[in-house]
Amino acid sequence: xxxxxxxxxxxxxxSAKRLGRKTIETLHAAGYRVVIHCNHSRVEADQLxxxxxxxxxxxxxxxxxxxxxxxxxxxLTRQVMACFERLDVLVNNASSFYATPVAEATLDNWQDLxxxxxxxxxxxxxxxxxxxxxxxxxxxxxxxxxxxxxLAQHSIYCMAKAALLMxxxxxARDLAPxxxxxxxxxxxxxxxxxxxxxxxEADKAAILAQIPLKQLGTPDDIANTLLFLVRSPYITGQIxxxxxxxxxxxxxxx
Length: 254
Description:
This protein is of the alpha/beta class. It has helices at residues 18-29, 42-55, 73-84, 107-134, 155-174, 201-209, 219-230; strands at residues 9-12, 33-38, 60-64, 89-92, 138-142, 180-186, 239-242.
């Protein structure tokens, strides 16, 4: 049986680990019931839900789907609504990220990067638009500072994030006045997991040198900005860079 309290509900895609997990924890602490989405990380998602349900009974649920697989979307939508029978906040956080040098890029790379970063956020926003409008809801898209300043060897990823940036602004116009749509553009928050072992200290130092505040951000920086946007009823169509000033200028080689 779903929990039919009046507490608002938030869905965060890709939220079993890293930034998505912190976002779930922050929204839950703010009184939201939360729907944790995962693809491969079911064990971590179930453990997170169990932890949150110990803090507040029947306040967290898990849905699993491959967002690049279009056939999964109708069932995912059904499962999300079956959890708590309402939705107030949609956070499009799930994202593929890896290098695609022009000479080596493939159609599969294109389908994956555009599928996770553009197509899925758009179609999920469309699928939940009626429910979000009913609740004067909010959509938050995780963009990237490299949507405007390209990252070397990541052309497809950067193009996809640029499309997500424009989608955020377009939907803010199209879905107003009943739904607000905003974006967050993180800078260097966590080292990418696939690079965390091999990224040399000199490379990390070069990245930090590009950041005026001379330090990495934290998942709390992203989650707290997201909560601010959720709670700001007169902000829509905006992209907030949370990057320690990195997007102000400097090299983007790393």
